[in-house]
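[#protein-structures] MJ: dropping ABC transporter ATP-binding protein here for a structure pass
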Amino acid sequence: MNTLTINGLSLTYKNGHQAIKDISLEIGNGMFGLLGPNGAGKSSLMKTIVGLQKPRSGSIVFNGVNVSENPDYMKQNLGFLPQDFGVYPKVTAYDLLEHIALLKGIRHRAERKTQILNLLDKVNLSEFRKKEVHTFSGGMRQRFGVAQALLGNPKIIIVDEPTAGLDPEERNRFNSLLNDISKEVIVILSTHLVEDVRNLCSEMAIMDKGQVLQKGHPNELVARLENKIWSKAIDKPALDAYRDRYHIISQQLIERTLYITVYSEEPPEDFMAVNPLLEHVYFHTLTQKP
Ligand SMILES: Nc1ncnc2c1ncn2[C@@H]1O[C@H](COP(=O)(O)OP(=O)(O)OP(=O)(O)O)[C@@H](O)[C@H]1O
Ligand SMILES: [Mg+2]
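AK: finished. structure tokens for ABC transporter ATP-binding protein:
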């Protein structure tokens, strides 16, 4: 079992912007989902965990090893797919993996070859191994990105919005690949897709403005909203009046009718009860008054 313990972590960029504020998380094997809107601090948190950003305060301990005191342990056991993996040079997929494998310190030639061929097979790129990476489609690039992250059998894999821009079929394939891997390692995944977290992750956190606002098991977080989510079709001009009276967590236009979804401990009059979903957890968390 691997463990990542983050305690009181804060990060301030050089321009003075505080992107992470006092984050504490305990993460074990399996898939951990990081949800949050644009600018929430997901990438900043990931970059800090992998050692690309130095925290202002707090600690990151991986398998009992303090990462700031011994950065090599994290580096040796890490696979990282950044949000902007912009390296698509004019070399073949195989050669680029060979290059990265060498950088990761896989020195034994035969071992390198076995790993690369296995990984290419795993991500469905075997037949394209002699193609240059810059000619790959978005989905192929992402899968290549996963292959490079998996070189060296990492114990912790961090993928930053890996399915952004993938078509539904590629996304499913990608998700099931991550899911297979996550049985024996830590996989931390950031995304905007609530559905992916629901389907894949055993633990999750919701971030906004640099803070973790909610964390736990997706099913348990959903269960806490039982009998508290309500919906109603309203006339558009009445929206402000409803906003004054209710805690509206989302609004949606369906075939020209405006539906509002509200959070209420008591059943509000004329509303329909709604079975809570993880998306309600997400909107409820983000619309809570501080
Ligand atoms: N190098 C940097 N210097 C200064 N501020 C930065 C830097 N990188 C990010 N930020 C700021 O930190 C905040 C968090 O950014 P971050 O990229 O971590 O968010 P995110 O949750 O990953 O967003 P997205 O979903 O759009 O990827 C934002 O306000 C962003 O503008
Ligand atoms: Mg990001």
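MJ: nice. Residues 47 and 155 are 17 Å apart (CA to CA).
AK: one more thing. The mean pLDDT is 93.
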